[in-house]
Backbone:
């Protein structure tokens, strides 16, 4: 037994919620089987598992692309072999909170592109909506099938030092990462085939089937076998591996903009047998590139005329166009009020306290306390455009303040949250690293389904709080116990 080599050197920080150790430095109940298993494994055994995982990722082409200085660098997605474990009761809480949140966000999107009662009643300021670059005026009064705007959501959760779960952000446009969740589980099955059933880990592999079922149910035509396609920007997109994986698992065609054509306000796919009408498009192309006749005229990624087909109800587009107004980081601050307004309920999941820098008093407070703040651009993603006050130099802070003052609407600030830590196997030892969690929710005519798990992202650099893969982060399998 080599318990010392793994656990004796594990340095849990008492200021951080540790997923494996409780406040009394005892192993949490949900980790005990994994603890016992690891205690009986040699360093050589775990090194072999780690090496096998890398080979499997390499052989299956599980990659992502980092864009740096205008160049695309393709990398194998870093994977940690030690799972992140969530109890059944924790998951029930998370699941209820996400479902509540998505109900309110769907109602908000229907309202903001319709009668705008939430604006008229003074819950959300009108200029907050109209100044959002992702508010698509062309979506006003468009009838969306089943009134569902958010069909696929990735809700980012973090855990503070007292164990409280917070929603960090809502990803409602073209959320990515689900293929890594699926591949992480497949690889974990290879590494720990006996441990998963012993721990009674709930499955995540139904995700493609649930998604496909939902897509079929959204067809505007009453046909027995609707045509569903996945629209990708192409092989140079950072998430292209995910596009190919999901299309293959669902058994649908993977297409690019050049493969589709619009005639008489209907969308058709070019095939060797001629044109075939398309009913449902799961698009992974951003709004601004989707239709060059309406949005960006220079776009080569979209389909000319697709917006007219959509407005007339001849094709379903998943997710709906214009969802970005609901996951704008400045609008995020109003989600708890949306829940109270539309559902007459108190939010189950908390927001991280958020300061609007467009507000002079809040901006002044943030500038005075900037060393304890994380400042973000409201419409950036991937960990780009952030200022981590505690880790920035005076010069970096001064330069960032100048950027803020150019357009305060485009920035929000949040206090630095001590993300929880989970054990990671690094260089033959277990070490705590900060983690977040992105569960994936699927909304269809039959309701909201969330596969029990999600993508746990890991800040692999010691001391880092940034989990994004583009910033040196990795991932691990997420086990939800039955």
Residues:
């Amino acid at each position: 037994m080599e318990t010392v080599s793994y656990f004796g050197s594990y340095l849990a920080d008492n200021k951080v919620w540790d997923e494996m150790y409780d406040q009394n430095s005892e192993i949490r109940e949900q980790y005990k089987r994994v603890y016992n298993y690891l205690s009986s494994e040699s360093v050589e055994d775990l090194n072999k598992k780690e090496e096998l995982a890398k080979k499997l990722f390499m052989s299956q082409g599980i990659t992502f692309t980092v864009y740096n200085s205008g160049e695309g660098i393709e990398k194998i997605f870093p994977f940690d072999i030690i799972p992140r474990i969530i109890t059944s009761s924790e998951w029930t809480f998370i699941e209820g909170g996400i479902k509540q949140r998505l109900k309110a966000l769907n109602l908000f999107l229907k309202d903001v592109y319709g009668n705008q009662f939430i604006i008229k009643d003074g819950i959300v300021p009108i200029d907050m909506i109209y100044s959002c670059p992702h508010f698509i005026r062309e979506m006003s009064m468009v009838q969306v099938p089943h009134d569902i705007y958010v069909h696929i959501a990735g809700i980012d959760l973090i855990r503070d030092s007292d164990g409280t779960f917070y929603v960090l952000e809502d990803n409602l446009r073209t959320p990515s990462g689900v293929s890594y969740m699926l591949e992480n589980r497949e690889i974990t099955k290879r590494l720990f085939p006996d441990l998963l059933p012993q721990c009674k880990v709930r499955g995540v592999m139904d995700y493609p089937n649930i998604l496909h079922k939902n897509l079929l149910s959204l067809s505007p035509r009453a046909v027995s076998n609707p045509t569903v396609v996945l629209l990708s920007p192409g092989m140079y997109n950072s998430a292209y591996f995910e596009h190919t994986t999901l299309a293959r698992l669902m058994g649908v065609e993977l297409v690019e903009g050049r493969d589709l054509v619009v005639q008489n306000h209907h969308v058709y796919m070019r095939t060797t047998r001629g044109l075939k009408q398309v009913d449902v498009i799961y698009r992974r192309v951003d709004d601004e590139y989707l239709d060059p006749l309406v949005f960006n005229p220079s776009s080569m990624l979209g389909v000319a005329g697709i917006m007219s087909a959509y407005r007339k109800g001849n094709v379903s587009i998943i997710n709906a166009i214009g969802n970005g107004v609901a996951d704008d980081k400045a609008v995020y601050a109003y989600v708890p009020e949306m829940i109270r307004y539309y559902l007459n309920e108190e939010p189950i999941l908390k927001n991280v306290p958020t300061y609007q820098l467009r507000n002079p008093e809040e901006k002044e407070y943030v500038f005075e306390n900037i060393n304890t703040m994380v400042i973000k651009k409201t419409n950036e993603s991937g960990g780009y455009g952030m200022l981590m006050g505690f880790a920035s130099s005076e010069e970096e802070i001064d330069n960032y303040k100048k950027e803020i003052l150019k357009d305060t609407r485009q920035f929000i600030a949040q206090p630095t949250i001590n993300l929880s830590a989970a054990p990671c196997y690094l260089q033959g030892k277990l070490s705590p690293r900060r983690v977040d969690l992105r569960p994936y929710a699927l909304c269809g005519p039959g309701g909201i389904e969330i596969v029990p798990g999600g993508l746990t992202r890991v800040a692999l650099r010691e001391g880092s709080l940034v989990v994004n893969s583009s910033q040196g982060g990795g991932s691990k399998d997420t086990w939800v116990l039955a």
Residues 353-415 form a domain with the Dna Ligase; domain 1 fold (CATH 3.30.1490.270). The chain has a mean pLDDT of 92. The radius of gyration is 23 Å. Residues 231 and 255 are 5 Å apart (CA to CA).
